[in-house]
Amino acid sequence: MDERGKIAWLTRRAGFGLGPGDLDRLESQGVDAVLDDLVDPDGRGVAVAPDPWVGIDLSVDGQAAPAKKNRGEIPLAWIAAMASTPRPLEEWMRWFWHGHLVSTMRVVKSPALMVRQMQMFHDRGAGPFRDLLRAVTVDPAMLLYLDGNTNRKGAVNENYGREVLELFALGIGNFDESEVRVGAGAFTGFRVERKTGEARFDPRSHDDTPRRYLGVEGVHDVDTAIDAIVQHHACPAFVVGRLAKAILGEPTDPARLERLTTQFRDDGLVVRPTVRRLLEAGLDGAGVPLVWAPVPWFAAMVRATGAPIARISQPVGRQLQAAGQLPMDAPNVAGWPSGRAWLSSATTLARGAMAAIIADVAPMDGPALEAATAGDWTALADALGRPEGFTSPTQAALGAITASAQAGRTRLTVAMASPDMVVI
Amino acid sequence: MLSRRSFLIGGGAAAGTAVGGYALWDALVREHLEDRPLSPGLASNGSPVPGAGGGSTLPSILPGTRSVVVVLALDGGNDALNTLVPLNDGLYHDYRATLSVADGTAKPLTGSTAYGLSPVLASLAPLWDAGQLSAIAGVGFAEQSRSHFAALDTWWSAQPGAVRTTGWLGRWLDTQQDPANPLTAVALGSTAPMLIGHQAASTVILDPRGFSLRAPRGADAAQLSAALRATAGPAPSGPAPTGGESLLDVARHSWPATLRGIETFGPALAVDAANDEPDGAPDEAPDGKITALLKSAARIIDLDLGTRVIVVSAGGFDTHAGQAEQHAALLADVSAGIVAFSAAITAGGDAQDVLLVTTSEFGRRVAENGDGTDHGKGGVSFLSGPMVAPRFIGGGYDLAALDKGDLAVEVDTRSLYASVLHWLGGPVDEVLGAGHAPVGLA
Description:
By secondary structure, chain A is mainly alpha-helical.
């Protein structure tokens, strides 16, 4: 990869692509400065990104009869933020944790509580994993999603106790069935107060009996249980593995993962330095191709074309659902599939539709549509964040679209939906 | 590092797609090299439960016709006890203080004093009376794990505890003449890991109402379609690759396969969208999601394009909390869907060819948790079609002899799968391994 290619890679793997003119500007800064800005925006004085949901009615009053009206608005507001944020990694981390520590609007039913959880991921996403896991365990949306809300002494609900081990922190095979039960007991006693949407701890419904959990004696409450989980030998490797898969693709060299895991443990499970190391490894050529999931792909295509997302949010919401990836609507607690799942006919078709919808509203004077109209494939690929150009089948497909009234928009659609923009 | 589930959910779902399951084997094996045996200590015993055919017959399809199977996959772990309800069983009411179906409200099944249908399944009773419905109580895998994702693996692959790479229906597709034909198998409502094979391809239709290609306004749709097809490069319709190709190579097959599916199924499914209100009654409630998908399945069968297997996926059955309301709504949709499906294929003249089975990854705990039920073991399956007889297969529920708080597994799920494969004309052993006697259909 040359300098320009490296910058484009960074913005695809730890962000949501590039807007018109961004690549020229970032190339003049150099890849090291781009990486620093990405990983440490506070330290580098990068402009603060506005909250994606500012201006949307999120009053908790809506909870008794959950407000349906803004349920569709909220995921799209988030994607609009992905497509415009000056701090792409912050949004990327939020997106990563949302896909890993899953809750869904469908189950939680409260837009306000879903948004609060997303704000928590934003604030804690790059910090110590222990704090993040502690926070999500008693997060009101999570309490509702995995039934912590009804998990009480005498009526233990195992749902969270199982998934926190299996899906969030350790992985299957690193715990046994009795530990699911013990952990669930330690987590008893929290519920979500309807009026405020706050999590409340009620000692009377908490089972405070000290028990052995994951090899640690005396575990009896949420703090001791979370400590036992993050101290478990499998935890750092599990988290690093998930981050590595998202950033570098798979497979990743086991020796590298082991090194990163040791460093992550030595860092006290602080996420930010590990993300930086993974990005550095990728710039050194450790990344392998991955399939761009529908949401980050769509955000990047919006960003690249300059399409006004507010004008297309309704049809796009439907298409993201058809593609199988609407934010806050993961299919189950394991989150979204990855890789080849996003090459299915259902996703391919929805991607094509989204590409057409974007092409419909792409501004005439944007570099992407201009290049498509002019038939300049090099410039078109560069505008879409692929400075290395298109592969020959994509070029041939584009070249076969003859000049006509909508040739530019048709070419832009094909380019965005082509395998070149899906496998990145 | 990468759990078995991360494969099956990720790569697995992928393989149930139009681009097929090719190329997955190597990736899978790599991922599984570090894998451990499934959830050590969770298997209750190692011996497979024999199929409980009980001397019944195994009707085969008449020569010259094409058998079809529709698998209705109830994702999340359907609660057996509140689906096929034990009648006059005090233990049931003891275990389910708030959730049990009250005696006298279950819909009785002619000839049975032991079981009735949940009241919301009452519309299935006429199918029973017409000799087109049977039930297996206590179906599951003996090696069942309560882990959701280990259970999904087993459910999809039918290979508990082994290094598994393919879905059971995908392996069947691999034995067919043209496994890469994406019209032979269709996944409706969700990707279907059961359809992963080495070469098997399938068409995935998440939302039947939107299965057509969208072009920019004013654009030439034919030109767009041709260009998208051309992104595959030369010979896009050549034989499916068999392994080792790059992600980009796999991606290049996605547009040709997708366009073929659209051109074939799109027009028929659009008819359903237009007739969203059955019988033209304008004030009738719109179809539930499961009903709409089953109607689409019937329409695909009616096209007579050689589709043999349709997996309809319905989610929401993981009822840890709020079970009373949620489960009843889902079952009502299942019931309406099966009735509508049966009516549609009967009207289309295909009923004698089509076996429908319901299945779920596990049953739920017998004792409720106060508001719902946690993951359990033995479940219930229904079989429907003119080839079945109204009867219960297997030993039924025994609430006095629970397996660690769960309904025991009386009939191995592989015996249900064996019946399905037998109906499809086999092979059975090649797909499931030896020793899984099919449950008799009639």
